[in-house]
Amino acid sequence: MPNPNDSTGTVVEPVEAPETGTPGDDEVTLLRSRTKGLDAKVTALQASEKAALERAAAAEARALELAQAKEGGDAELRAELEKAKQALSASEQKALLGDIKATYPETFGVLGDAALKMTADQLAAAEARFAGVAAGELETPNPVGANPPRGAAPSTKAIEDMDVKELRAHLRKFDISAMLGTD
Q1: How many CB atoms lie within 10 A of CB 104?
Q2: Degrees to nearest 5, angle at CA 95 with 94 and 96
Q3: Among candidates 149, 129, 151, 150, which has minimal Cα distance to 140?
Q4: Cβ distance 106 to 131 under 8 Å?
């Protein structure tokens, strides 16, 4: 067969590979074996990845299911807990109101349930105020006149007990013209 690239026109005969036991056959067999091993590894990795994805999806579905169940269960438990707290609070208030009624009867008679909001000191002060007041006499008395009553005059120190500043201030209160007799 003539070589199309050869300008001399010589004929090149193809070289035949030996039929068996040649180094080329061993390489092909080795490469085919390696390819089969790699294909098996890839298949195993794909199978394990698929299994992992399935497990993750199942775990996520289970977590979502538990979360939904938990929300419903929590709401029921919270409602029950709130109901128990309210019952306990009501019984505590009744007991506290009974204690106030026994300890401060006048205050309880006047203020009633409002006494729950007061401290022990306030209750004691209110009891002292209400001790002599009947239940209907809570109105403040009106003053007798338009002018408020005068208080007691402030007591002054004796002149012997005053120091110089106090004595000067005391003397300034007096009208000098009245002392001298001039108008």
Answers
A1: 23
A2: 90
A3: 129
A4: yes
Q: Which residues of 119-140 are buried (b: 16+ CB within 10 A; e: fewer)?
A: eeeebeebbeebeeeeeeeeee
Using DSSP's 3-state secondary structure scheme, residue 2 falls into strand
**Identity of the amino acid at 153:** A
Over the stretch 49-105, which tens digit does the pLDDT of each residue have?
A: 999 999 999 999 888 887 777 666 677 778 888 888 888 888 888 888 888 888 888
Name the band, by pLDDT with cuts 50, 70 and 90, for residue 112.
Answer: confident
**Tokens of residue 158, six digits:** 């004796």
Model confidence, pTM: 0.32
Handedness of CA 39, 45, 51, 53 (dihedral sign): negative
Is residue 116 within 8 A of residue 96, CB to CB? The reply is yes
Paired tokens of 15:
């070289």
